[in-house]
Amino acid sequence: LASLVDQHLHLAGPLAEQKTPLVFVSEYTLKTRKQIIRSETRNPLLRLRRTVWTTQFERRIRDAVALAAGIQCNGTPTYDAYRAINSNPLLYFDTRVGAADIVDDATLERRFASLRDGNPLRLAYSGRLIAMKGADHLPLVARELRKRNIPFTMKICGDGTLVPVLNAAIAQYGLGDAVELTGEIDFQTELLPYVRSEVDLFVCCHRQGDPSCSYMETMACGTPIVGYDNEAFEGIVRTTNVGWPVPMDRPDAMAEAIARLHGDRAALVRAATASRDVAARNTFEKTMEIRIAHMLQCSGERKRRAAS
Length: 308
Fold this sequence. Notes:
The chain has helices at residues 6-9, 12-17, 30-40, 44-67, 76-82, 105-116, 138-147, 163-172, 187-198, 213-220, 231-237, 251-262, 265-280, 284-307; strands spanning 2-3, 23-26, 70-74, 89-92, 121-126, 152-157, 179-183, 201-204, 225-228, 243-246. The chain is α/β, with parallel strands linked by helices. It has two domains: 2-93 and 283-307, no CATH class; 99-280, 3-Layer(aba) Sandwich (Rossmann fold), CATH 3.40.50.2000. Strand 9 (225-228), helix 11 (231-237) and strand 10 (243-246) form a beta-alpha-beta unit. Helix 3 packs antiparallel against helix 4.
């Protein structure tokens, strides 16, 4: 098992010659890697250099994937990109949530009662507070909601380099009564119980198609997502009613989508139930089971080829 990184790609050729099975794990497409470079690199010359390098690196990735016994794709973007060039592609969705932590009906019903009572929408985000995750857009979304007179609260859970930027924006826009930075909280004992019981909608401003485990873990809490239309989120909502994609880098469009949902609480209820059901089919246990079975399948097929 190896990653699609520079240090591992050279293994593909020799292992294929030796008939030794190699399975790659993939997460970032070329498009996503370019988006990450754009979001994290301010110097234009350095940004160009990194973009050229990662474009050339993609050729090496594709050559290695074609030689491997299999590839495990975290999310639909790399699955769509590489499944045609490898004989054993597997699609999975990364998550740390086991079956025991999937939200139950009683907890969901308490949340739904709050929605039906017309209470302010309880919004949240959790994750690294860095540029590629779009954390700096969260106060902009909140400001746009204020302009539209939408009642809401927003909790931002996590830590990162943008904390000072977020604090300054919250103060500048007068959002202190509605937006709160909680800092980093424990995933198992604090974050999961909070999202399960107190969050109506997860606000995701990810500027790139990183197949973040936040998607499936949020859905396991029965919490639908409104997010920028990066290729990872688009892949999830393509066939499931678990959230609402909006145009990239458009906090105003994000706020407009939330405003519509404020007036359509039934849509939030439907998406919450669908989110829980999708996550229940993709728990940590089930995901590890299919990944292990896939590795055994790839190993058996390569051994059969070597013996023939």
